[in-house]
Specification:
Shape: elongated
Organism: Streptomyces edwardsiae
Keywords: ATP-binding, Hydrolase, Nucleotide-binding
Pfam family, one: CT_A_B
Strand content: 25-35%
Protein name: Biotin-dependent carboxyltransferase family protein
Oligomer: single chain
Radius of gyration: 20 Å
InterPro entries: CT_A_B, Cyclophilin-like_dom_sf, PxpC
Order of helices and strands: EEHEEEEEEEEEEHEEEEEEEHE
Distance between the termini: 65 Å
Length: 295
């Protein structure tokens, strides 16, 4: 049995393996998946001495606990949270040495939603379609972590980041999403288009890796006929029958039959990954005004 491995002591609410995902397979019905907060995952890898595409662990709200079988360097980024090794406080957002047999505990998020745990050498589960990411929608990639699971580790690199700590953006107090109108904004009434970019929504507890669901004013449709299924992209803001917008995230479906009122700017989506339920959400049109609807 190799000593380059990581035993899961406490899996947490939802901890998955993620890397940069598997873009380019939408024609096969496969979402891109990958870390929802890509900059935080890349920073964790840098601090742990890994290449930016190495696989990390993405925790959700409650963290996880891990026991390496060999001495490793780890880094925890993303949602601020307490970090401890064998019960003693350790650094968040900085390289931490964890000896073989010690327990690294990544605690519950103090702010934000998702923490990223990079381990020197990276998580070396078998790739599927070029990625080690867990995809909750299609089921591709490794299953979410369970207590007692053992994860293989790759060979560590020769260099670690020469920093004591790295600055990271705080989880947003208000989520502001820049959106480009369309392609189906003409399926909504002028009043719905006004509400969409003028009223505050809130993050719904039903949000997940597939989409950030919102609660707020329902958007009325100008057209009520059936829309044939069409391709969906990362950041698409789809409006289901209840009228409240859903922002598609990394595990989104590749097709959908509800109208897409706008598409969110990709640079704003990492903040969406760190917005807990109840966070205010505002949609800001990046073109001058939304179209006023029509048949």
């Amino acid at each position: 049995m190799t000593d380059r491995a990581l035993a899961v002591v406490r899996a947490g609410a939802l901890t998955t393996v993620q890397d940069r995902g598997r873009p380019g397979h939408a024609h096969l019905g496969v979402p891109r998946s990958g870390a929802l907060d890509g900059p935080a995952a890349a920073l964790a890898n840098r601090l742990a001495g890994n290449p930016p595409d190495a696989a990390v662990l993405e925790t959700t709200l409650s963290g996880c606990s891990l026991r390496p079988r060999s001495t490793v360097t780890v880094a925890v980024t993303g949602a601020p949270c307490p970090v401890a090794v064998d019960g003693r406080p350790a650094a968040w957002g900085a390289p931490v040495r964890v000896r073989a047999g010690s327990v690294l505990d990544v605690g519950a998020a103090v702010r934000g939603v998702r923490a990223y745990v990079a381990v020197s050498g990276g998580i070396a589960v078998e790739p599927v379609l070029g990625s080690r990411s867990t995809d909750l929608l299609s089921g591709l990639g490794p299953a979410p972590l369970t207590d007692g699971a053992v994860l293989p580790l790759g060979t560590p690199g020769e260099r670690l980041a020469r920093v004591d700590a790295a600055p990271q953006p705080a989880p947003p107090g208000e989520l502001v999403l820049r959106v480009t109108p369309g392609p189906r904004d003409d399926w909504f009434t002028p009043e719905a288009l006004r509400l969409f970019t003028s009223r505050a929504y809130h993050v719904s507890p039903a949000s997940n890796r597939i989409g950030l669901r919102t609660a707020g004013p329902a958007l009325s449709r100008a057209r009520h006929d059936e829309l044939p299924s069409e391709g969906m992209v990362l950041g698409a803001v789809q409006v289901p029958p209840d009228g409240t917008p859903v922002v598609f995230l990394a595990d989104h479906p590749t097709t959908g039959g509800y109208p897409v009122i706008a598409v969110a700017h990709p640079a704003d989506l990492p903040a969406a990954a760190q917005s807990p339920p109840g966070t205010p959400v505002r949609f800001i049109a990046v073109r001058r005004g939304l179209r006023t609807g029509g048949a």
